[in-house]
Every structure is written in structure tokens, then in C-alpha cells.
Specification:
This protein has about 170 residues and is an all-beta fold. Helix content is about 0%, strand content about 40%. A hairpin with a 3-residue loop joins strand 6 and strand 7. The longest helix is centred in the C-terminal third of the chain and has 4 residues. The protein is globular, with a radius of gyration of 18 Å.
Length: about 170
């Protein structure tokens, strides 16, 4: 559902998965964008994610915002991302719904009064407190989740005085 002066259209201009994505063109008003309502359970951890890409135009590297609201406690998380025309950016937000919550509303909008044109694809909601790899498909899909890996370079850890690393390691196969 469009918010403010935004217009939404199905587009073949870019797609993270398949041949179409949602194209959102906003006016020059803060909070223009779109939202999606999602059924949820009370006091439950979720993570929402969506892939976004700039469609170019007058602002080829816009900042957009992902906001998650539940129907009882209000705003539960917000994240910003800068988009480019060359790569898809996955933006994600983890949160726990309030007691009594039955729905979540995910907004993708502009945090400032700037006209923005972007694509959105591969929306995923997971009932956990971490994001997993995208599994696409749709009706009749037969895709399975690929094995994941956690990777950090030593450069990413430079400058941190303290950190903890823990792992379960299994040798061989079952």
C-alpha cells in the first residue's frame, strides 16, 4: 500500500528474483513509500528483510528506511540504508512483538523530504531473531535453503578491544 505521495508499480526494470519487482517512486516528502501488513503473534521474535535497489533518476544513491511497527506497542525497530543503481541492498530489522500483538506493519520509506525512485523485492519475514539466506519461489517452489556461513575478516575486528567467539564444531559426517 502506497504512503503519502508515493506511486507503486510492478516493474520489469530490475528484479532480485524472477522477472519483476515493486517500483516505488516517492514525492519530495519525508515518509513517502509503502507498507505491508503481516499477521504476527504476541511476544514473539521476528526479523523482517527486503532487498532494495535504486532506480536512478535525480537521486541515484538515496537513503531509505525500513520501519517495523506492531499493532500494540508501536514502533519496534527502524534501519536506514543507502541504495545504489548497481547492487541490491538487503535491509533487515529484528524485533520482538508486544504482548497482545496480532499484526506487524513493515514500512519502507524516505527519512527525509527527498524524491526517491527505487525497487523492492524478496520480502522475507522469519520467526527468529536472526536473518537467514533468501529462499525464493512462490507457488509450487521447490527451492531449499543453501548452507550458510558466518565470515568476518580480521580487519572487521580491528579496533575492538573485546569480543567473544563461540562455535559448535563437528568433525566428519553423519
Amino acid at each position: 500500500t502506497a504512503v503519502g505521495g508515493a506511486t507503486l508499480a510492478s516493474s520489469t526494470g530490475a528484479a532480485y528474483e524472477g522477472t519483476r519487482s515493486l517500483r516505488c517512486t516517492t514525492g519530495a516528502t519525508a515518509s513517502d513509500g509503502f507498507y505491508v501488513n503481516i499477521a504476527a503473534s504476541a511476544s514473539t521474535s521476528y526479523v523482517l528483510s527486503v532487498y532494495l535497489k535504486s532506480a536512478g533518476g535525480a537521486n541515484p544513491t538515496p537513503t531509505v528506511r525500513l520501519q517495523c511497527w506492531d499493532d500494540v506497542g508501536g514502533l519496534v525497530n527502524t534501519k536506514n540504508a543507502v541504495l545504489t543503481t548497481s547492487d541490491w541492498t538487503r535491509i533487515e530489522a529484528q524485533f520482538t512483538t508486544a504482548g497482545g500483538a496480532t499484526a506487524v506493519r513493515m514500512y519502507v520509506d524516505t527519512p527525509t523530504a527527498t524524491a526517491v525512485d527505487f525497487y523492492a523485492d524478496a520480502l522475507q519475514i522469519e520467526q527468529k531473531n536472526y536473518t537467514t539466506s533468501w529462499v525464493g519461489g512462490g507457488a509450487g517452489a521447490t527451492e531449499v535453503r543453501a548452507a550458510g556461513a558466518l565470515a568476518y575478516s580480521l580487519a572487521d575486528l580491528a579496533g575492538h578491544d573485546d569480543f567473544t567467539f563461540a562455535a559448535w564444531i563437528r568433525r566428519g559426517t553423519r
